[in-house]
Amino acid sequence: MLNRPIIVFIRKSWILGAIITLIILVLGAGSLKLTSVFSSGLKDKVIVIDPGHGGADPGAQNSGIKEKDVNLDISLRLGKVLESKGCKVILTREVDKDFFLPGFVKGRMAKRAELDNRINIATENNADLFISVHANSFSKRNSYGMETYYHLKSSSGKALAEKIHEQLTQVQPDNKRKAKAGDYYIINQEEIPAVIVEVGFISNPKERKLLLSEDYRNSVANAIGTGVEQFFTAFPMGVRESSPTVAQDGPPLISDNTYKLYFANDNLENLVPEDRQINPSVWPKLDLAQKASLVMSELIQGPLSSKLIPTIAPTTKILSVTTQNGLVTIDFSKDIRDQFPGGALEESMTIRSIIWSMTQIPGINSVRILVNGEFGESIGGHILLDRTFSPQLGV
Ligand SMILES: [Zn+2]
Questions:
Q1: Which residues pair with 89 in a beta bridge?
Q2: What is the distance in A from the centroid of ligand 1 to the CA of 322?
Q3: The MurNAc-LAA domain covers which part of the protein (predicted)?
Q4: pLDDT digits over 210-244, tens only?
Q5: What are φ and ψ of residue 134, in 5° steps?
Q6: How far apart are CA 177 and CA 194, in angstroms?
Q7: Is residue 32 exposed (0-12), middle (13-18) or buried (19+ Cβ within 10 Å)?
Q8: Dist. CA 340–CA 346, nearest whole Å
Q9: How far is the C-alpha of 50 from the C-alpha of 202, rounded, in Å?
Q10: Centroid of ligand 1 to alpha carbon of 293 (angstroms)
């Protein structure tokens, strides 16, 4: 009889203690969480750095330099910079390797699997940021300048790209390029701010020389690191996603007697139209697929003006053209991919030149691009041809 109340008392105090401990734990965890949300800087941020290409995929090449090697070296330097600021850094690759499935370097869905494996590293590690490092190349040697891309649907990617690009222009004060929206697969991630940094043109003799120097590579890595730091300082609570819209018009429809072919200007910044005369005794008799085929074969032949840049390798053949409900499907020979010399920017110009040249034809409003009969291929490894393109949908 005497023991009981004591036991009850002990039990009560044990329960009370447990409740108090639980309250402390909950409050403690809460305040920890608050601290981490409000702390500025880079402490404990998880940054995934993705050196573009690698292994069987060299990326752009020029004068014996391979994009994959430049990307890897600058990524390793960037990793050290970010680690010194307190970040946890994960590289998608630290050596010369790729993520193709064994035996599937080319062909249907190969590139998608390759890029997905890189993206998965960021998702599996709950990354706070994803930075893909690439280098450009272009047939015109005078094109130069670092570039930063965000996905056209990502507000946080845009904010990050702007902070990084601001720093890059301090390394390269004559850089007139701006952080730009792009439709590149590797940065199309819903929850993680993601950017592509194009560290320069290996096709430009001056920039190539810079890119080969350790000092310059360090400056680029430091600039990206500072940009990342400023992003977290400016947006400690993250950036609200509001799907920034990229205003993009389609091409004007064909007038009575001329149509336009769209080529790149010599700094890869715009598409520039060049007029071709319509043969009035032939054109009206062509069906839609024949019209598309005629315009496309002229696009492949290239521009007349030496100031404009061809967007498709001239050896490329058209294997077939079909149309259905406003959609044109063009099957190109693999030259469009195998003879492609450039980087991400030139690739987007190639695809846009095809879309614009096609959708000026009344009755055609979207385009599908096949390579050697395959859907889901990629011309330069940055944009997947696994969907239907229209001029309003980016690229
Ligand atoms: Zn690349």
A1: 47
A2: 31
A3: 119-229
A4: 999 999 999 999 999 999 999 999 998 889 888 76
A5: -135, 170
A6: 19
A7: exposed
A8: 9
A9: 19
A10: 30
Conformational region of residue 137, where left means phi above 0, alpha means psi within -120 to 50, and beta covers everything else: beta
pLDDT digits (tens, 9 = 90+) for 143-168: 899 999 999 889 999 999 999 999 99
Tell me, in angstroms, the distance from the centre of ligand 1 to residue 332's CA.
22
For residue 238, the CA-to-ligand 1 centroid distance in Å is: 28
| Span 20-43, average pLDDT | 47
**Spacing, Cα 338 to ligand 1 middle (Å):** 15
Contact 391, 246 (CB under 8 A): no
Please state the φ and ψ torsions of residue 48, each to the nearest 5 degrees.
-100, 125
Separation of alpha carbons 144 and 164, rounded Å: 18
Ligand 1 centroid to Cα of residue 242, in Å, is 28
Nearest-5° angle of CA 387, CA 389, CA 391? 160
Domains and CATH numbers, the chain: 46-234 (3.40.630.40), 258-393 (no CATH)
Tokens encoding 170: 């301090």
